[in-house]
């Protein structure tokens, strides 16, 4: 009987160590217990994955939650799920298609008209490594949704956020930004051969640069903005990569996926932390890897690149440079 004790002990130790390592890699739960009663939160792409879990976490803390999604059937279902699980009746679905400038403007106008305040904006929605698609307005889809859509939405809501200060903006980027480069000669991949991975990395680098420049512009307003890498999660975001449908991935890499891939619930913890933590009220312009502040890539720290990207983005989406967040003025060339 004793001869089995050592193997069983070793197996137990390995399993226990693996679980602890997974918890460490995943980053753990949001350490803040702060609640947000009376505060209005907008979460884009909240019908599934990290966005839905972020909305649920913030609904648990008493927030007035707006789920902003393209697919209203799924969005309404998600809102119903969250209301049922949290018993918070203040969870609503609203239409927002980040691949359409028209839809973004309509959503922002509705929020400005109907909401007394906006305390937290979580720019969560994303497209990852899709085919060479373009948005309604002719932008490369990943750059258009991940960066330009949120760039316009945030600027249109800035006056409301300032009026609600202290308020927060959270931009979901990715560790992939370190491999990104902003190609100002061809931001929308009109001339060079399309590279789905490079396009994704560029879009996520743009998110960090936008965060840095927006933080600079918001100094003294009481509005903070930070970017984060939530971790690699088991969500629908990776559906275009082929990893989830590959038999090789499932059987050969399955144990590594289990260890390194977060659940949507764990991946939502950094967004929740940045949205509610009292100790982060005055922290702005930073990049977080999970729950920890971290230096982004060198290009993400380049102030000149950030300023130039802001100007290019404002031109592309037709943002009135003179009036900042008013969103009125020049039309977008199709």
From TrEMBL:
Q: Member of which family?
A: Belongs to the short-chain dehydrogenases/reductases (SDR) family.
The name this protein goes by in its record: NADP-retinol dehydrogenase
Q: Name its pathway.
A: Cofactor metabolism; retinol metabolism
Q: Which UniProt keywords apply?
A: Lipid metabolism, NADP, Oxidoreductase, Signal
Pfam families recorded for this chain? adh_short (PF00106)
Extract the signal peptide range. Answer: 1-16
Which reaction does this enzyme catalyse, per its entry? Answer: all-trans-retinol + NADP(+) = all-trans-retinal + NADPH + H(+)
UniProt-listed Enzyme Commission number(s): 1.1.1.300
Q: Which SUPFAM superfamilies match?
A: NAD(P)-binding Rossmann-fold domains
GO molecular-function terms, A-Z: all-trans-retinol dehydrogenase (NADP+) activity
The yes or no answer to whether the keyword Membrane is present is no
Give the PROSITE patterns listed for this entry.
Answer: ADH_SHORT
């Amino acid at each position: 009987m004793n001869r089995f004790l050592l193997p069983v002990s070793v197996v137990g130790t390995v399993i226990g160590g693996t679980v602890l390592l997974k918890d460490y890699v995943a980053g753990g739960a949001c350490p803040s217990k702060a609640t947000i009663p009376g505060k209005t939160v907008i979460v884009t792409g909240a019908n599934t994955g990290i966005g839905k879990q972020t909305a649920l976490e913030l609904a648990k803390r008493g927030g007035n939650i707006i789920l902003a999604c393209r697919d209203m059937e799924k969005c309404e279902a998600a809102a119903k799920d969250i209301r049922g699980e949290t018993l918070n009746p203040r969870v609503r679905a609203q239409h927002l298609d980040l691949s359409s400038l028209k839809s973004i403007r309509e959503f922002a106008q509705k929020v400005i008209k109907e909401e007394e305040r906006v305390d937290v904006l979580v720019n969560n929605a994303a497209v990852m490594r899709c085919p060479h698609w373009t948005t309604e307005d002719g932008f490369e889809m990943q750059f258009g949704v991940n960066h330009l859509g949120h760039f316009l939405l945030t600027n249109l809501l800035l006056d409301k956020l300032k009026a609600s200060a202290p308020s927060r903006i959270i931009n979901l980027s990715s560790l992939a930004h370190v491999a990104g480069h902003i190609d100002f000669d061809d931001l929308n991949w009109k001339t060079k051969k399309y590279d789905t991975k490079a396009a994704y990395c560029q879009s996520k680098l743009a998110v960090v640069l936008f965060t840095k420049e927006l933080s600079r512009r918001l100094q003294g307003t009481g509005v903070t903005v930070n970017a984060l890498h939530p971790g690699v999660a088991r969500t629908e975001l990776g559906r275009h990569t082929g990893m989830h449908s590959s038999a090789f991935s499932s059987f050969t890499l399955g144990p590594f996926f289990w260890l390194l891939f977060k659940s949507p619930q764990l991946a939502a913890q950094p967004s929740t932390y940045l949205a509610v933590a009292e100790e982060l009220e005055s922290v702005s312009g930073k990049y977080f890897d999970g729950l920890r502040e971290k230096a982004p890539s060198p290009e993400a720290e380049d102030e000149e690149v950030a300023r130039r990207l802001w100007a290019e983005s404002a031109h592309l989406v037709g943002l009135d440079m003179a009036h900042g967040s008013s969103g009125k003025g020049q039309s977008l060339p199709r």
